[in-house]
């Protein structure tokens, strides 16, 4: 039996976007905004007739996340139970250019990116929030720059001190005891004061 010419053939492959998300109870807007996006969206190309488990195995191979630690959610909030992983992507409800949320089964169960990715994001945030001419008070930076849950045990002050080639810290000990952070200029290798 041949197809009518007006019906296009099914695609030989589909693109699925996977967005890693975790809950962040330490975020200031936690009850209203409990999610933290863990990194860049991963786009995968896969056969639409493939089983859902094949998609999970692709993610395991790329990101190194154990299958037992993966919890997939279809928008808006439909969790894909493990017994459905043997069904095809279409049967589960995954379609071309669709977005899947991937959550750890427990907080801190895995990281989507390497730690250097998160360090880079914090450095970008710092550089964007520091006045290039005058510098910015540490208290102001501490309020504006948010450390990801991955770095919860790190203090922002300690993180900044890790990069003396990028940032210069000055502490005024003559009265107010306030701290200022400046962007380290090339050729200007002043020692930090603390």
Largest sheet: 6 strands, mixed
Structural class: alpha+beta
What shape does the CA trace take? elongated
Rg, alpha carbons: 23 Å
- SSE series: EEEHEEHEHEHHEE
Summed over residues and divided by their number, the pLDDT gives a mean of 84
Helix % is 10-25%
Q: Please identify the oligomeric state.
A: single chain
Question: Uncertain spans, ≥5 residues at pLDDT below 50?
Answer: none
Q: How many extended strands?
A: 9
Distance between the termini: 81 Å
Determine the strand fraction and express it as a percent band: 15-25%
List the total number of helices. 5
Task: Lay out the secondary structure.
Blueprint: E1 14-23, E2 35-37, E3 42-46, H1 52-63, E4 70-74, E5 78-79, H2 89-92, E6 98-104, H3 115-129, E7 136-137, H4 138-144, H5 156-161, E8 167-171, E9 179-183
Parallel strand pairs: 1-6
Antiparallel strand pairs: 1-2, 1-3, 4-5, 4-6, 7-9, 8-9
Walk me through this protein's architecture.
The protein has 194 residues and is α+β, with helices and mostly antiparallel strands. It is built from 5 helices and 9 strands, in the order βββαββαβαβααββ.
């Amino acid at each position: 039996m041949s197809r009518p010419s007006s019906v296009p053939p099914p695609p030989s492959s589909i693109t699925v976007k996977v967005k890693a998300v975790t809950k962040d109870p330490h975020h200031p807007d936690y009850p209203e905004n409990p999610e933290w996006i863990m990194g860049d969206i991963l786009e995968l190309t896969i056969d639409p007739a493939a089983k859902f488990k094949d998609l999970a195995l692709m993610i395991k191979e790329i990101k190194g996340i154990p299958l037992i630690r993966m919890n997939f959610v279809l928008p808006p909030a439909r969790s894909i139970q493990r017994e459905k992983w043997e069904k095809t992507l279409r049967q589960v409800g995954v379609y071309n250019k669709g977005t899947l949320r991937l959550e750890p089964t427990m907080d801190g169960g895995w990281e989507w990116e390497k730690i250097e990715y998160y360090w880079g994001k914090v450095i970008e945030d710092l550089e964007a929030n520091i006045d290039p001419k005058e510098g910015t008070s540490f208290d102001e930076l501490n309020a504006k720059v948010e450390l990801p849950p991955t770095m919860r045990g790190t203090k922002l002050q300690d993180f900044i001190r890790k990069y003396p080639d990028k940032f210069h810290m000055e502490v005024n000990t003559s009265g107010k005891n306030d701290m200022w952070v400046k962007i380290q200029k090339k050729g200007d290798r002043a020692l930090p004061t603390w």
